[in-house]
Design a protein that fits this description.
By secondary structure, the chain is mostly helical. It has helices at 7-26, 34-57, 83-90, 95-111, 120-124, 126-144, 166-174, 178-193, 196-199, 234-247, 264-275, 281-290, 325-336, 342-351, and strands at 73-74, 77-78, 312-315, 320-323.
Length: 363
């Protein structure tokens, strides 16, 4: 498809330029704000891609309106749909594509006023970044055809380091700033909240392993080859699984949603069995509020993922919270040792006072 000059083509070209600039910045190791810039420009690229699609299909109607039917204005200009609204209005993305985009929308909001001085976050989310880009190009081709494909303009982001030693990993962890740790906690929470089939999809996160080609190959072969998983035979897939089993330090089998996680009633029952105490649901609410384990229903506007992941996780699928065994163990300890009593946690809850859980934990 070749678009004529006009608003659709102008917006589309701006979208493509944003994506190419995002890749250019990402592939410059010494570029400042590398991760933040990639995410910001890819969010812009996706938003503009949807706007160009809407303009091409439904016309100039991708703007917010007030209840009286008039357009919302910002500095005199009509307010266009944001990416989250575009996703909903379009309605044609897979669950994995939506999960990937929602991940970056949330992450963009968290890094908007932060400076990531180290590259740990970029390494951690490399798979999601690659899928964000691949999904963009696939949707771009679906909307406007192969003439607008980016494949000739993109390059694989090379890594300059060999396998990290255990000492390097340990020293890297000790150098993580508080803000980077908070972002890493958010990433872990989000990944834990999505279904296994979504997480394992290449549309959510590209999973790569490097296997050197040691056999004789054609000298015209590419140095890096991407193999489509869906095109592999059963035998090739089995061999791949054997290779990854050799490479992985640890394999975690995930066969059910939230394995080993506890509902509030389970927590209360186990604590009462362990202590002989008569903990009830209101007591439990006071305690998780008191120690900032998770937001309460009264916390308007608070991100539901803002939990202490050592003790609690937000389950986005079911829109509720599940708890770890460590939370049962912690409550059992503080109640059994008389470190806190019912009157204290009720008074603190009523007064809106919180305690530092670090002061009560045993190292």
């Amino acid at each position: 498809m070749q678009l004529r000059k006009g608003k659709t083509k102008t917006i589309l070209e701006s979208s493509i330029e944003c994506a190419l600039l995002a890749v250019e910045i990402y592939n410059k190791p010494r570029a400042p704000f590398r991760v933040e810039s990639f995410i910001t420009h890819m969010i812009m690229a996706w938003t503009k891609l949807f706007h160009s699609h809407f303009n091409h299909t439904i016309g100039d109607r991708f703007y917010y309106k007030k209840k009286n039917g008039r357009f919302e204005l910002i500095d005199g200009e009509k307010k266009a749909w944001e990416l989250k609204t575009c996703i909903t209005k379009y309605g044609g993305l897979t669950e994995a594509q939506k999960a990937n985009l929602n991940f970056f929308i949330k992450l963009r909001n968290k890094i908007e006023h932060r400076q990531i001085e180290k590259d740990e976050i970029g390494i951690v989310i490399f798979g999601e970044c690659q899928s964000l880009l691949f999904n963009f190009e696939n949707k771009l081709i679906e909307f406007f055809g192969n003439d607008y494909a980016l494949n000739e303009s993109l390059a694989f982001a090379l890594q300059f380091s060999r396998l990290r030693t255990s000492k390097q990993n340990i020293s890297g962890k000790t150098l993580l700033s508080k803000e980077v740790k908070e972002l890493k906690d958010f990433i872990d929470k989000y990944r834990d909240s999505i279904a296994d089939d979504v997480f394992n999809s290449q549309e959510y996160s590209v999973k790569l392993i490097q296997v050197p080609k040691i056999s004789n190959t054609n000298r015209n072969d590419l140095a890096v080859e991407f193999v489509n998983w869906n095109s592999l035979s059963d035998e090739d897939r089995e061999n791949y699984e054997k290779v990854t089993a050799i490479i992985k330090d640890k394999v975690i089998a995930k066969e059910v949603v939230n394995p080993g996680k506890l509902k509030p009633g389970d927590v209360i029952r186990q604590v009462n069995e362990n202590t002989g105490f008569k903990l009830n649901h209101f007591d439990h609410k006071c305690l998780y509020y008191l120690f900032s384990i998770r937001p309460t229903s009264d916390d308007n506007g608070v991100d539901p993922f803002d939990t202490n992941i050592k003790y609690c996780h937000y389950d986005e699928v079911h829109d509720d919270y599940v708890y770890q065994d460590d939370w049962v163990n912690f409550l059992t300890m503080v109640i059994s040792n008389n470190q806190i009593d019912r009157q204290t946690w009720k008074e603190n809850y009523d007064n809106g006072t919180k305690l530092e859980i670090d002061d009560y934990e045993i190292d």
